[in-house]
Amino acid sequence: MTITLTVNDARHTLDVDPATPLLYVLRNQLRLDGAKFGCGLGQCGACTVNVGGEAVFSCLLPVAAIGERPVRTLEGLGSAQHPSRLQQAFIDKQAAQCGYCIAGMIMRAQTLLERSPHPDEATIRRHMEPNLCRCGTHMRILAAIREAAGGANS
Ligand code: FES
Ligand code: FES
User: Fold this and answer.
1) Atom of ligand 1 nearest to the CA of 58
2) Helices (H), the chain
3) Which domains, from first to last, does the chain contain?
4) Rounded to 10 degrees, what is the CA torsion of 7, 11, 12, 16?
5) Which DSSP symbol is given to 47?
6) Which ligand gives the minimal distance to the CA of 59?
7) What is the tens place of the pLDDT at every residue in 27-46?
């Protein structure tokens, strides 16, 4: 089946099984490997990307269900040379240990900051709850999000 997908402002026409999870299309066909395969079951958040302004588990979302909604991935935020404010905050706070969860963490946080640029601590914690970090760097991740949000406790 032919599907048209907008990813990071670029249109792509793909020949793909409509049931293919978005994560596989991003990684295998578009070569965007920021989002990671963790559990494949909607339980870890490593695969989180932004679809139509919402943080979604791309391991669960069939590519045919996306429709016209734009997809944004970590690669759409910034680059190593020109990181976004949020990416820079993750660097400044050394929020990554192994780094496997970080693309998903950043994309989930990004959806919050786009909706609410200065969220309070409780809102940040509640919003980030679906994403897990097996290295246990949650406190640094929270500090990075607070910094990007201009919070006083960063
Ligand atoms: Fe998608 Fe774990 S890989 S939620
Ligand atoms: Fe290793 Fe989060 S930094 S899983």
Assistant:
1) 1
2) 22-24, 85-92, 102-115, 121-128, 138-148
3) 2-76 (3.10.20.30), 85-149 (1.10.150.120)
4) 70
5) T
6) 1
7) 999 999 999 999 999 999 99
